[in-house]
Amino acid sequence: MRNTTESRTETEATALRVFAGNGFGDAAAGITEQQVLLSSFELERLARAHRSRVMRLVLRKALRAVGGFARRLITQWKHRQHARAAYAALRGLDARVLRDLGFHRSELMSIAAEMAGAAESTRILVRHSRSF
Fold first, then answer.
1. How far is residue 20's CA from residue 41's CA, in Å, rounded to a whole number?
2. d(CA 97, CA 103)
3. Are 79 and 115 within 8 A, CB to CB?
4. CA dihedral sign of residues 95, 101, 107, 112
5. Handedness of CA 26, 16, 20, 52 (dihedral sign)
6. For the whole model, what pTM was predicted?
7. Rg (CA), the chain
8. Are 47 and 19 in contact (CB under 8 A)?
9. What are the Cα distances from residue 125, in Å, to 64, 101, 102, 121?
10. Residue 79 and residue 114: Cα distance in Å, rounded?
11. Tell me: the pLDDT tens digits for 48-100?
């Protein structure tokens, strides 16, 4: 029969090798004197500290992703608000003024979206020159 202290030391050393082999911690694959002398309490403390670092990193990345998503939502909402305001202003114009501007009433939504930056510009700026 084996001595309990020897089997405990071997078990702890095996646990450290498995811990290092799975990529957790900075432990080398070989057994060092310090690894043999670690108690199960110290192993648990090291594992908790490692888990805490990993969870902080995961949480930080998740919060950044949520923040980016929220910023995009707010930007889109602002674009829609500006587009609605532009559409309301254009809708208030009569047909003659719209024609002078070069727009037809059916284009008002598209023009408002372009003005607000909610859509890409599809109109070409044409400058008419007088021919002499």
1. 17
2. 9
3. no
4. negative
5. negative
6. 0.50
7. 34
8. yes
9. 40, 12, 10, 10
10. 10
11. 999 999 999 999 999 999 999 999 999 999 989 999 998 999 999 998 998 88
